[in-house]
Design a protein that fits this description.
The chain has 433 residues and is of the alpha/beta class. It is 47% helix and 13% strand. The chain starts with a helix and ends with a helix.
Length: 433
């Protein structure tokens, strides 16, 4: 993008007086503003989302996306436009001593040091590059982050924040609500990945920030590795060629409703001897209660559990082996797994809550069921596997099509750019660029 175009987009939507002022300052400035926005995810909390968004914005050099390396798989997302220059100390330590990531207390301390130094870099580089918009993907320390936002805004920079969850899952304490209220009030714009999350902010946190909320949907997530054939994947996973395979993928946490899914499997498998369930994902809590439930319900022979970090290559094999993906969340907002399932061309079953319902065209690419209702979940599994293979394949194709059309990254990128330009115009006035 040339300087003239940058000038035009930053002036768009301003009053005549504002335009005259900005045009004058551009003429007087021998090195006019060249940057539009800096996107940061200092600790690399959402690497899949970051990589996809950075690729979508790769034709716009006036937007820079900065994050930390993806420590779990340093070779993933190398084709993205991410600048992985945060947490350099952590990266050096993880490269030399890979097991340091598994020492939770030490690793959190290292990440904290990197987070604080990352904020210093962000403020310094915003000033040096005169970037008018800062877009933060994740705030980790709300009390500190409010203060950091104020420092940035005193420089005339406008701050956008992507709210992935209105409040931390399972934590609705009044003290937490007040903390996030301060955070949301301080930001200049709040980006939510679904209308439902925007409504949660208004109902749970603060109805006074409604005018700041911008819905920019989560784009479809393509797998980082190509999927093997269904036959090869099932051989690798020791699954029968004619098995009816449902997949749960994601972090192992209580709010994901895994206990409901296991109970649903017990109900549905009574009349479906070929039914199988794969549970895969990093345990954020002990997997022992789930293992005990599987044992108690005599499901050990039909549940394939992988409570571990799932590499990108193994993830591709899991999706290739599965017939349908299931998201039985009890406290849903939005699920990256759902966007991955669409990208992989898998039908989905989701609970009726949050942004999950926006991923389903009922009975076309999947089904929705009530939250905490194993019987309904079992019925949805039965309904899907009762369909002949040609209809199951049609639902898979519908998922792929829905992901490509409704959740296209080109749309996501355009909405981000539009918002950055709106904020940049306001930042330009206050900074006197």
């Amino acid at each position: 993008m040339d300087d003239k175009h940058v000038e035009q987009v930053m002036l768009r939507g301003m009053t005549r007086g504002d335009r005259d002022s900005i045009e004058s300052s551009f003429r007087d400035d021998p090195d006019p503003q060249r940057s539009l926005a800096m996107i940061v995810d200092i600790t690399g909390t959402a690497p899949h989302y970051n990589a996809a968004l950075s690729r979508a914005l790769s034709d716009h050099p006036e937007v820079v996306f900065r994050t930390s390396p993806y420590f779990a798989d340093r070779n993933a997302f190398l084709d993205s436009a991410l600048k992985t220059d945060f947490l350099e100390t952590a990266a050096r330590l993880a490269d030399r001593w890979p097991t340091v990531r598994h020492k939770r207390g030490l690793w959190k301390t290292i990440q904290l040091q990197g987070y604080l130094s990352g904020w210093r870099e962000v403020l310094r580089d915003l000033v040096l590059t005169r970037t008018p918009v800062l877009h933060v993907q994740w705030f980790k320390l709300p009390f500190l982050d409010v203060w950091q936002m104020r420092r940035v805004q005193r420089r005339g920079v406008r701050v956008a924040y992507t709210v992935h969850n209105a409040l931390p899952h399972g934590d609705r304490r009044e003290s937490v609500r007040r903390t996030y209220q301060r955070l949301y009030r301080q930001a200049d714009a709040l980006i939510v990945l679904s209308r439902f999350v925007g409504q949660q902010i208004i109902e749970w946190v603060d109805d006074e920030v409604s005018d700041k909320i911008h819905v920019i949907e989560h784009g479809v997530l393509d797998l980082a590795c190509p999927m093997p054939s269904r036959t090869d994947a099932r051989i690798e996973l020791n699954l029968e060629p004619d098995a009816e395979v449902a997949l749960f993928m994601g972090g192992i946490r209580a709010y994901k409703g895994i206990t409901d899914l296991i109970e649903a499997l017990a109900i549905a498998s009574r009349n479906r001897p070929k039914l199988r369930l794969i549970i895969a994902g990093s345990p954020m809590e002990s997997f022992a209660p789930y293992a005990a439930q599987i044992e108690r319900l005599s499901l050990s022979g039909i549940v394939h559990a992988y409570p571990q970090y799932v590499s990108e290559r193994f993830k591709a094999a899991l999706y290739a082996a599965a017939d349908i993906a299931v998201m039985p969340h009890r406290d849903p907002s939005q699920s990256a797994m759902g966007l991955e399932a669409l990208g992989a061309g898998k039908p989905i079953i989701v609970t009726r809550g949050g942004g999950l319902v926006e991923l389903v065209d009922e009975a076309i690419n999947g089904y929705t069921v009530p939250i905490r209702d194993p019987a309904a979940l079992a019925q949805a599994l039965t309904r899907f596997f009762d369909r002949p293979p040609v209809q199951q394949e049609s639902m898979a194709a519908a998922s792929l099509s829905l992901g490509r059309e409704r959740f296209a990254w080109s749309k996501v990128a355009r909405k981000h750019l539009d918002l950055y330009r709106q904020l940049a115009a306001k930042a330009s006035i206050s900074r006197g660029i």
